Amino acid sequence: MRHWKYILPLVIFAVLVGFFVRGLDLKPAEVPSPLIGKPAPALNLKPLLDTKPGLADADLKGGLVLVNFFASWCGPCRIEHPLLMDIAAKKIVPILGVNYKDKPEDAKAWLANLGDPFAKIGVDFDGRTAIDWGVYGVPESFLVDANGIILAKQIGPMMQKDWNERFLPKIKERSK
Amino acid sequence: MIAEIGHYALVLALFVALIQAVLPLVGAQRGDAAWMAVGSQAALALFLLVGAAFGALTYAYVVSDFSLANVAQNSHSAKPMLYKISGVWGNHEGSLLLWVTILAVFGLAVAAFGGNLPPRLKARVLSVQAMISTGFLLFILLTSNPFARLAQPPFDGNGLNPLLQDPGLAFHPPFLYLGYVGFSMAFSFAIAALIEGRVDAAWARWVRPWTLAAWCFLTLGIGLGSWWAYYELGWGGWWYWDPVENASFMPWLAGTALLHSAVVVEKRDALKTWTILLAIVTFSLSLLGTFLVRSGVITSVHSFASDPARGLFILAMLVATVGGSLVLFAVRGPALKGGGLFAPVSREGSLLLNNLLMSTAAATVLLGTLYPLFVDALGGGKVSVGPPFFNAVFVPLMVPMVLAMAVGPLLSWKRGDLAGVLMRLKLALALAAAAAALAWLVMGGQPKTLAASGGLALAAWLFVGTLVEFAGRLLLFRAPLAESWTRLRALPGAAWGMAITHASMAVLIGGITGSSAWMEEKIQVMKVGETVMLAGHEVTLTNVRDERGPNYLAQRGTFVLKKNGQTVVTLEPEKRSYRQPPRPTTETAIHTTFWGDYYTVIGDADGQGGYVVRLYFNPMVAWMWVGILMMTLGGIVSLADRRHRIGAPVRKRAAQPAAT
Predict the structure, then answer these.
(1) Residue B447: how many other CB atoms lie within 10 Å
(2) A89 three-state secondary structure
(3) Is the peptide bond before A47 cis (omega within 30 degrees of 0)?
(4) CA-to-CA distance for B229 and B618, rounded, in angstroms?
(5) Integer Cα distance of B414 and B340 in angstroms
């Protein structure tokens, strides 16, 4: 090849594109959680609503649950909300809501407006529970089994794809 | 209604761009003057349509039309007007619209000021510009419509991240984009030249001012971003080697190389294929930055909300633009004939050295930025590459670069006399040694002594070397002063520009060296009434109180800075908690002096009457900002060189001697 020098930039670029294509499927922001496979941290929170209880450690020992950290001021929470409503309507798994750094009246208005998918809701006003759980932004969701072990974690809004691929199989496996 | 007009204008713009992409190109191939002329008219139409769309979105922001999803998500009725307007480009959709608008402005500029371009070249350049516009317009219309309406408009908007509500940042994106998009001009000229199969001095003369203008904007844009990070983030630093910073730095490095290699093409008819490749690479790196920031492939503190569908689209666009141009380069590149020969030690040789070092630097930054992706894609897990890597590879590349920067301009074309030049640089060498010795004496073997001495020596060497070169042009002290004065007045803008930018680099290096080597920090808990020593000054925390702002609560601390008991200045940093969105920000208070900045940050209370405070003495930081302003100024002065406007050398007929 006499003209290899002229083709070289194209070859380098092609290799880069290969990595980019692969990179689109990777999610660099998702640092794997060290909590997966470990017992869930403590959960003792006062109730948000008068009509629903708050959260206690015992709630993590009764069966499979989905723990969801949300806030009324959080945009992506709005995106995943319809899916949570759907999960609640189909009674696939009870959802425990943790209202993160929110004004109670804002959170109540938000739920009244968009619907309430949660079985129980606790108030994490100062965000300490979120720190214990290693949450670094809302929304985040954890699938916890009957022994209180974290099976899966979703960072950012739960999308149908994530739910179908990473959560549903685990739920089906446990409920056999 | 206005928003729908804006949306409709974008759709029309897409069709105009398609026409502009095809007709002039075909016309140039066939030699059809009428078809070629379509390019200029289409460029005007494209500008008007895209401008109308941009105006429509700006209007929606100004009047806070929350029925637009984009406005509702990013604006708030209580925001000051400046941030309502800057909100237009403070989000993914709006920033893309700004991008195409600037592209249309550049297209219009070619149509309007390209009167002295050969019609074929002009037609092809406009066509390539329109191809880029087509890609971006499709991207906006298919994946990122800024005019999407909400079925149920909210009562008020979500507001803009308070960190971004800042004058420094309001103008940072437009300047960056003027830079990125400006490099599309060099790209379009390169593609046109490849199609035409010819690159000559006239071509280089046309490309240079566009590249220079883009470079000035980018320099200023990067400078503004760095300045903002320095005073707003409250970490005391000004450059973090964050992927998004790197994304703007890579085109700057490649663009700087391009500016220098274009000189060789213009003056000596050499380095042609290399220059063409650099033009392609510079713009490709600008596009790559767009891809990295918006696709979610790389994590960064300030990426836009990413979306894989958008990522795929930009990647497709990247493949079409960069891949297409590199295929064209592979096919047509070998046909470009190289020109003048030169010895390694010559002006050309030194410019080539600049190119090698600048491109290596750009490649290194690219490698460091993408390394986490490479490792992750190959199954190696999550890693991050930080300042230690970049500093370790960047500094060794810049040292020879700066050494050569003083020598290169003194060398003559074709074959230079290195010994003679070094003789002329005796003064620079002596002052560099003096600066190093001084730094050594002052520091006396502290950890960063070597870096400080080396950095200051380089700065002195470059500054004095540049002055020597400038004085040489004037025959200062070798001819009567009157003659020097006459020569000074006749000196072309390009010569002034080079002297100013090279000297500004010296100032910048001085600032970087000083701020890295002599930085002092005190991070501790202070109670009201306590005093600490910072860089020979007593700093006393005299008061902490609560303040209420329009949309935030603040805790304001008062520091009194004293030297030998005399009050120098009172500084009042704040820690603010914004309500919508709920986010804390730090407002630093900085006292700037010639030799350094006294930089104060107040943090949380520790619950026992104390406050976490961060006090920095950042030496010579102002030098960096002055250096960047000088650098931009140098570019502008060079741009004002009248030869750029009138004297494009007449294009010779293809100078192939008839083979007899």
Answers:
(1) 9
(2) helix
(3) no
(4) 14
(5) 8
- Report the chain A residue with the minimal C-alpha distance to residue B333: A6
Residue B657 pLDDT: 41
Query: Which among B277, B297, B329 has CB closest to A24?
Result: B297
What 3-state DSSP class applies to B213?
helix
Computed from CA positions of residues B452, B453, B458, B459, in that sequence, does the dihedral angle turn out positive or negative? positive
| Start-to-end Cα distance in chain A | 62
Tell which phi-psi region holds residue A91, choosing left (phi > 0), alpha (psi between -120 and 50) or beta.
left
Q: Which domains does chain A have, with CATH numbers?
A: 31-175 (3.40.30.10)
Distance CA B284, CA B276 (A): 12
Give the residues of chain A that fall short of pLDDT 50. Answer: 1
What does the block give as tokens for B101?
Answer: 């608008």
**How far A134 CA lies from chain B's nearest CA (Å)?**
17
In chain B (660 residues long), the average pLDDT of successive 10-residue segments reads 93 96 93 90 96 96 90 83 87 91 94 87 94 95 90 78 77 90 94 89 87 95 90 79 88 95 87 91 90 69 59 87 93 79 85 92 91 83 81 90 91 85 89 89 76 90 93 84 86 90 95 87 89 90 88 88 90 84 82 90 84 90 94 93 61 43
Nearest to A20 among B277, B280, B297 (CB): B297
Which pLDDT value is given to residue B124? 94
Each domain of chain B, given as residue ranges in start order, spans: 1-161, 166-406, 425-518+622-632, 520-619
Q: B377, A28: Cβ pair inside 8 Å?
A: no
Q: Cα–Cα distance between B91 and B88 in angstroms, integer?
A: 7
Q: With a cut of 0.90, is the ipTM above it?
A: no
Closest by CA position to B548, among listed B586, B579, B580, B590: B579
Q: Which two tokens stand for residue B159?
A: 């507001």
Q: Which of B:268-297 have CB within 8 Å of A?
A: 273, 277, 280-281, 284, 291, 295-297
Residue B315 exposure: Cα atoms within 13 Å on the Cβ side: 22
Nearest CA in chain B to A4: B330
Per-residue tokens: B228 = 């903002």
- Identify the residue among B155, B158, B373, B583 best suited for mutation to test binding to A, counting A beta carbons within 10 A and taking the highest: B373
Measure A22 CA to nearest chain B CA, in Å.
6
Please tell me which residue of chain A has the smallest CA distance to B332. Answer: A6
Instruction: State the Cα–Cα distance between residues B493 and B536, nearest whole angstrom.
Output: 44
By C-alpha distance, the chain B residue nearest A32 is B382
What residues contact B659, with CB distance under 8 A and at least 6 apart?
A: none
Q: What is the pLDDT, as a whole number, of residue A28? A: 59
Q: What is residue B658's predicted lDDT score, i.e. its pLDDT?
A: 39
Q: How far is B333 from chain A (nearest CA, A)?
A: 6
Cα B488 to chain centroid distance, Å, stands at: 31
**Predicted local distance difference test score (pLDDT) of residue B308:** 65
Residues on chain B touching A28 (C-beta within 8 angstroms):
296-299, 372-373, 376, 382
Residue B174 preceded by cis peptide, ω within 30? no
Q: Which residue of A3, A5, A8, A24 to mutate against B (max B Cβ within 10 Å)?
A: A24
Residue A154 has which token pair? 């979703």
Q: Buried b / exposed e across B365-383, counting CB within 10 Å, b at 16+?
A: bbebbbbbbbebbeeeeee
Residue A28 to residue B376, Cβ atoms within 8 A: yes
Alpha helices in B518-550 (DSSP H): none
Q: Give A-chain residues touching B374 at CB under 8 angstroms.
A: 19
- Laid out side by side, the sheet with A150-155 consists of A120-124, A95-100, A65-70, A140-144, A150-155
* Residue B521 in tokens: 């920090």
Report the C-alpha gap between B455 and B78 in whole angstroms.
47
B158 CB near a chain A CB, below 8 Å? yes
Q: Which pLDDT score is estimated for A1?
A: 47
